[in-house]
Amino acid sequence: MLVLSSTAAPAAATLPLFLPQAPPDKVSGLIHAATLLAQLLGQGRAVDSRALRSAMETAFCGTDAEGAWAWKDAYEALEAAQVLFPRKFGAAMRTRAGSAAAPGSSPGQAMLEMLTRLAARLPSQTRRSEESEQLQQFSTPIPLGFAAAEAAKLTPADLVLEPSAGTGLLAIFAELAKARLCLNEIADTRAGLLGRLFRGLEVSRHNAEQIHDRLDPAIQPSVGLMNPPFSASPHVERRFAEAAMRHIASALARLADGGRLVAITGRNTGPDQPDWREAFVRLQEKARVVFSASIAGQAYARHGTTIETRLTVIDRIPAEDPRAFPPSPGMAADTAELLGWVSHLVPAP
Q1: In this predicted structure, what is the pLDDT of residue 240?
Q2: Fewer Cβ within 10 Å of end Cβ, the chain: N or C?
């Protein structure tokens, strides 16, 4: 027979009725915060830094000052909210875009205007982390992601590879096009976040510079959408200028014959740039550049940088003349001008 000591009962009686709530694991907390933020966006409200802080404190049961979360985490939640928003409202937005397009405009331009207004309701990402700097984690602004997806000419028959998938701001447009997805992301938190945002997908975690060598040989994407680090490699401390071209070459090697790669890079990584011309000449022995244009730095301003970027479209078909490239239309002042060029100058794959 078990006998309790005379001191046991009083001690038990002093236990609190409700134990303190344990903080969630990071990915669960980010999803919770993203859901709260997406609800605000769905109500047509702006998300300022105060609202972002409130969502994070609710989700993580504490403040950043207490170490419950960091502002890098808050920005990841904010980007996840931008994935959740078009997933819920994307079909309605496309219907509205189709009926609201002005004469001489297109549904794509009307859709872009809505996404640009959405982005304008978000705070700027003003704080960087060590990981952000080391891996150059500048996620794709959602209007630019839409323009890149339009350049890909996605269909439900496509299998879309995103080698550096980040928080899903490119992948969501492939999902909306009903394409299948193959996502890779080297950063642990972002990979975990993608696994929760895109249920049913197994997110690989390779260094995307070697994505062709690392993926299962049976995976043959028809489209690649990518925003690789512009000049950073996971195991190289210094600036690594060859990084973007290595990502492009590996992703292109993995595409099926006739597939299309759409890449967002720094402005300098282009066939019209003297330092990279010969690299693109070699690339055109197996593929051909069909479009390349630079973009003014304002496109990335809310994501913490004003670096000038470039959108390049490459089809996996050998070029007739590897040294010949399509003329670039120049530098787009904004994403709307870029989308106009994409609509008129990018051929069907």
Answers
A1: 47
A2: N
